[in-house]
Every structure is written in structure tokens, then in C-alpha cells.
Amino acid sequence: MKKSLSRIALLTSGGDAPGMNAAIRAVVRSAAYHGLEVLGIMHGYEGLINNEFIKLQASSVANIIQRGGTILKTTRSARFVTEAGMSRAHKNLKAFKADGLIVIGGDGTLRGARDLGTKFNFPVIGLPGTIDNDLVGTDMTIGYDTAINTVVEAVDKIRDTAESHDRLFFVEVMGKDAGLIALRSGIAVGAEAILMPESPTNIEALIEKLQNVKRKKSSKIIIVAEGDKAGGAFEIAEKVTAKVKGYEARVTILGHIQRGGTPSCMDRVNASRMGYEAVNALMKSKQGVMVGIVNKEITYTPFEQAVKHIHRLNPELLKMLEVLSL
Fold this sequence. Notes:
By secondary structure, the protein is of the alpha/beta class. The protein folds into 2 domains: about 5-145 and about 265-305, 3-Layer(aba) Sandwich (Rossmann fold), CATH 3.40.50; about 145-260, Phosphofructokinase domain (Rossmann fold), CATH 3.40.50.460. It is built from 11 helices and 11 strands. The strands form 2 sheets. The protein has a 7-stranded mixed beta sheet, sandwiched between helices. It has a 4-stranded parallel beta sheet with strand order 7-8-6-9, sandwiched between helices. Strand 7, helix 7 and strand 8 form a beta-alpha-beta unit. Helix 1 (about 20-35) runs parallel beside helix 9 (about 265-285) and helix 7 packs across helix 8 (about 235-245). It is elongated.
């Protein structure tokens, strides 16, 4: 073990994701096993600037693996992206004698980690905590599995009503820049169409498809990612129903229920593995990398590569959707 490593700082930042607590637990208990101290930072990078440090022991993380959200709280910090804010954050880390920092969050969180580590040559390890699954270097981000299962459960219930009333439902899911929640959940619920920011939406083609299936199906579900270029679910529903008569259309915005709730088994296991490996990474003197899992194996991806969004969707999945939605 690197002798100079004795105290680790830990924070969660950006949007919360189910499984973050499991990752926190894994970091704290792995560190305790190796005789390392852990300083939790409340409210993300903003708390790092404000000196919101608390000591975390093995007992501090008891009974949290099953809880959604994050016990360290989270926020988005406008101050941290400034030179003054980042300098203050680094000074606080040094003042509390932290030898390394582990951050859990999404794209913005990892960008901040990259900049902090590069500017001050400070060891920072990232864990991919976001329901959007839009980071390179891991097959599934922490929170993604729970989020898509939440969508599937909700849409299954919506379809019961759609079947009973012969209705057309437009269901909006999260995904401002990435449509992976929409894609996976849409396939799982047997949606007639999935509208995503990565794939141009042809309203006329959607209308034609709905007209062709009108007499074949008693329910129709359209999954819309909130970042779709053609607009949100309400706007798209209005465009479609203006040209297609005979449909009784409804819109459901699932919103933040996708972020909350008890994390799935998959998210708990993945988060635990990543948290455990984040401590190992610091002990191996690694820095500036995100811990991920690819093909069931642990990987380390440089922040610069990890924060690039996935803009190309799997063409085989898109073709399968087209075939199965007939």
C-alpha cells in the first residue's frame, strides 16, 4: 500500500441515482479494512468549498445499502467551476489532510474531478453514478438498472388502462442528452415507437405507423425521451393527434420517480464492486480515472474519455424495435 495514503475524501454530486449509498458503503468499509480514514463531504462540490466534512466509520454506513438517494446529499455547484471555487476546494482538501478524493456522479461530476485533479495534480477517482447510462467506460452506470425497471413497472400499469380504453399513451422518460432509458425500457414494454435525441424523429412516419396499427392493437405506447429534438411528450402528442383522428390520447410524465426508490440487486452489486475498486485504485496510486465494469471485468477509464457522451445507439436494437413493434 502506498505509505502516504491514510485519509480519503468522498462526495456525491449532480443528480442522485439509486445505488449511490451502496457505493458509499463500499468505499467506507473497504477503507476501514485497510486502516484508512474516510471524510465524507456533504452536498457535493459545494460542500467541499464550504468545508462540510464529516468523519465516516464502518458503523456510519450501516443499513444504507438498500436506500435510494445519497446520505451525503448532493447539489450542483456553480462556484466549483470557477478558478476561485476550485482553488478553495483544493485548499480545504489539503487542510483536512486528505490524500485522495473519490467522487460519485455523472458527466458534470467527472468533468469537475478531471479539472481538479489536473490543475492541482491531486489524486481523484470517479465512480459513474447517473441513471442516464451516458458515460464511456462502463456497461451500466450506477442507478441505470433501477431507473429502467421503474419505467417498465410504471408503463406496465399504464398499458392496463390503455388496453381498457383503447387509448394512445405518450410516456415521457428522463434523458435530456441520451435516450438509453427510453431505448431499453421501450423495448421491454413493447412500445410502438421510441423517440430519442440520438435518432431524428419523423412525425409523419410516426403518424403513418400509428394509422397502420390502429385496427390491430387495443393499446399503443409511445416512449419519449425528454431531450427528443421534436419536443416533449405533450408537444409530440399534439402534433400527432392534430393529424390522426379517432385516437383518445393521454400523456404521462414519469419525472423524478425514475431517480428514487430502492436500488435493484444489479445496482447494489455494481456499486459495491466499483466502490471497493475505487479504494484499491487510490492504493495503487492511480488518479484521473473512472472505475467501471465492462464485460463483467473492472476497468479504469481516463476522465477525458469517460465524459464523452454516447451519441450512437446500437443499430441492431433499433432494427429489432422496428420488427417487434409491428
